[in-house]
Amino acid sequence: MVYGVRMNVLVTGAGGFIGQALASALLHDPRVSQLTLTDVFKPYLPSSSTSHNVSVRCIKADLTSVETCESLFAYDLTVVYLLHGLMSGATEANLELGLKVNVDSTRQILDRLRRVNPGVKVIFTSSIAVYGPPEGINKVVTEQTTPLPGSSYGAQKLIAETLLNDYSRRGLIDGRIMRLPTVVVRPRAPSGAASSFASGIFREPLKGEKSVLPVSKELEMWVCSPRTVVKNLVRARDVPKEKFPDRTRVVNLPGLTVSIREMLEALKRVGGDEVLKLIEEKKDEAIEKIVETWAARFDTSRAKTLGFEEDGTFEETLRAYIEDYSKNSGQS
User: Which of 81, 153, 321, 325 is catalytic?
Assistant: First the structure.
């Protein structure tokens, strides 16, 4: 098959779990000719990508540095994925660092791109944390729901969203803002995210290790599997800009509303009674305070109209995790 213009893609935060999974997908995309992976440490090539025809650069980069951004974000980029950021728990603990990484570096990158590469596609991974707590039981959130973040992380994501929307309105960039559900199960060690437990209570027990549940079993969460999130991040690149509504590039990506209790029931069906015994209930008020501010029910009509993929059941998510990562849990 003959393809048109080949893509030169750059991914920030590429050393993280989602960054590595996205990189793997891009390396097997025949439309991609060049791929730059960058993080605060030199990212590895995904272990699943042993054969590809893409020219790849893996670069250690401090994106809070003006000089670094000027050298990294060049004239010939086709698509930029902004996945870097300080996570929710770490941001709440360190406001100054959160502002520097989540706000200042994002503006620095966008300002560089609008000057040297106007109109470039920029896919930004935002979060449902921008909304804050819902205004009532079973309240369904849409892109029109007023964001009122209940955490510094959510506030900083919203600031970055506003810049992307405005720069897109002005034709300076072609922004696409993807509000991600909580992604589970993540295969690596716990991160600075307040939602890290939502992976740990499955990842560790499935390895025969103990884990702590710091929130109520009745807590509901809006979650999505890694497989579906990566497919939708690729899809975000391919949506024609004319398909987005006027004045906004925000999309709530599809997910699944599920309680912790329902998640654990799925774990029991997949792993048996023994894995549940490895989970200790131990409340952490700091974590619960953050996670309780996140909405759990979303109308994703816009995403479906734009061709984004829906997720399966949570049991299917667990089985996919075992297939993709559990046997090689030390790999990305």
Answer: 153
